[in-house]
Amino acid sequence: MGTSRRTVLTAAAAAGLTAAAAGTAHAARPQKPTREPFGALPDGTTVHRWSLENGGTRMKVLSYGGIVQSLELPDRHGRYANVSLGFDNLPGYLAATTYFGALIGRYGNRVARGRFTLDGRTYQLSVNDGGNSLHGGARGFDKRVWDVEPFADRSGVGLVLRYVSADGEMGYPGTLRAKVTYTLTASGDWHVAYAATTDRATVVNLTQHTYFNLAGEGSGDVLGHELRLEASRFTPTDATLIPTGELAAVRGTPFDFRRAKTVGRDIRAGHAQVVTAQGYDHNWVLDKGVTRRPGPCATLRDPGSGRTLRIATTEPGVQFYSGNFLDGTLTGPSGRTYRQGDGLCLETQHFPDSPNQPAFPSTVLRPGEVYTSTTEHRFSAA
Question: Has this prediction a pTM greater than 0.70?
Fold first, then answer.
């Protein structure tokens, strides 16, 4: 793994940071996250921004959408940068359709025609992506204000976010009680733990939609980032990005990331699937499958800064999205515009359109059951 996290953080301390910020062995006890107003919704509801720090990682999270508004990490020399795309004001998030940093639900990714049948009854969902439903519909979990409770304990520093999705919201059956816990550990890693219950049979697929640029937000594209995915297969799609049902081998295609390669190496190779999506916007089938404990998923590295992100998850799939639809019309906190490929997403998930694909792992949740999912983001620099 090269230079250890501790070495990097010691360098950060030498650069003038406090021992607590650098995550040294003798740092003061981590403090609970702090809250400040971040604006108001049109109906007057106040949106808060929470700031949390542990193990040398700094994060800011909004009560609106559970959005990670910034994620600051040191490079190999201890210099910090915000590695997540987003905005410095609430109106930016209210107007955009990019899902920057947001919690996604009730169903992450696409459902064909916004329709599925469960226990003999067909449900029509909110359609917001051509003829399909994307990320929970027109007002998914990313556009809701979550109840937020801060904590600081032996597990780390973090936030417990709760939202109750009413029966029929965006067309989904059942009242879903969702709880998502963001934790920054003593080593500076970011854990996301999802849980949900329902009072009627429903489908659920929660994920997190942070756009990463490990060189720093606004620094340019991520085509030179090195990516490895622990997946021998992926799910090809039709012209509307709905899976065909096939689990296709990545061997011999631009989708083969079993050995690390740059994001841009094959992105213009002319493969029909890449042309349709204008880049990568596909679900990779993780070799490990569904697991009780987080298993290997993805490794992303920026050679310039030395920052590395390793993701482990209990989920069976990951959606790698290469920021294909960023078109230069949005401006981040850096004051620079975001263009195609200026960030990428690695959304851990069950497969898209699973409610209509019997051969895919099930996303059905019934009364008395508890939906759980865990994803770990491990940061280092060397």
Answer: yes
